[in-house]
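Table 4 source record.
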Amino acid sequence: MSTVQESRNHFIEQRQAPRNLASQDAPLFAAATSMRFPDCKVQHLREADVFGRSPIRLSDGQFFPESFVNQSHFDLWKKQRGHWRAGVERFLHYHTQLDTPGIWITDNWSCGFFHWFGDALARLELALQELPAQEVTLLLPHKFHRHDYFLESLKAYGLRDVRVLGRFECMRCTDLFFPQHIADTGNYNTGLMHAMRSRFRQHIDASKLGAPSSRLYISRRLAGRRRIVNEAEILGVLADHGFQTLLAEETPWEQQVKLVAKAEFLLSNHGAGLTSMLAMEAGTRVMEIREREDQHNNCFFTLASTLGLGYYYLLADRHDPTVGVHLADLVVDPERLNETLHMALHPTLKSKIA
């Protein structure tokens, strides 16, 4: 589990090292072993306009930079004439009014599974530390109608109302509450993430599922990138170790949560499916198959540490070395997978891996 050191204006989180960390692999995780977080607050905006497809606009007519994941994204939006397009779209807008307190938790990255659960909902947890859920309306941009899991996951929060704005809707909010970004994406506030896990496990009544006992592999075979090209070869290895396979694209969100909550070991290659470890009981284990040279994408290593889960990893090669790390499909060595799983599932035995 991560250890947290607090001070007046910030806290520092020290992450637990991977349980199978080899000395030669330490540079892959070095940048993520410790992180300093500033205190974050819920901002209260008066008479702010929110849009179906544009940033928040304040009462002085200026767009709100924190509508974006960071300042550089806001600057790029302006450089690409986003503010001009928003101005033109004013002629298409229809206007509505919200007189009850509203909450806005999204930015330009939030409309994806990982960023929704890892970033946006953490900000909702922050807001609900100050605001009663049954008295506030959560507002979402138009594009959040795309996937069912957005609204399905919000059922766990008991909000007064959730409104997905129309594409050209401009809503004037008398009182809009905007929780600040908690950390750079891939980093997490321990208290907020534990609260989210408790909320989801309570939502599915995880206490009735019994002690975690299953082993679950989340496949990316239906994804457009970062697939395991020789997955057929490794499925036999996984079956020998008692793993069942989950295709998240074909499984309703609540059912996914129940399956993961029952798991004592979760395995997948780097991708959004690993975000589901949020439903796992503390003390259970997770393994990430990751690209051999990737020293940047440590979001699941840090999430596992934040949640008090044992983290293991297996390095794999890119199928096509000319494709970038973030997009590349992987080739997994079945023998090495078997050895790593044997060690992770039987931690009292010595690993054969150098």
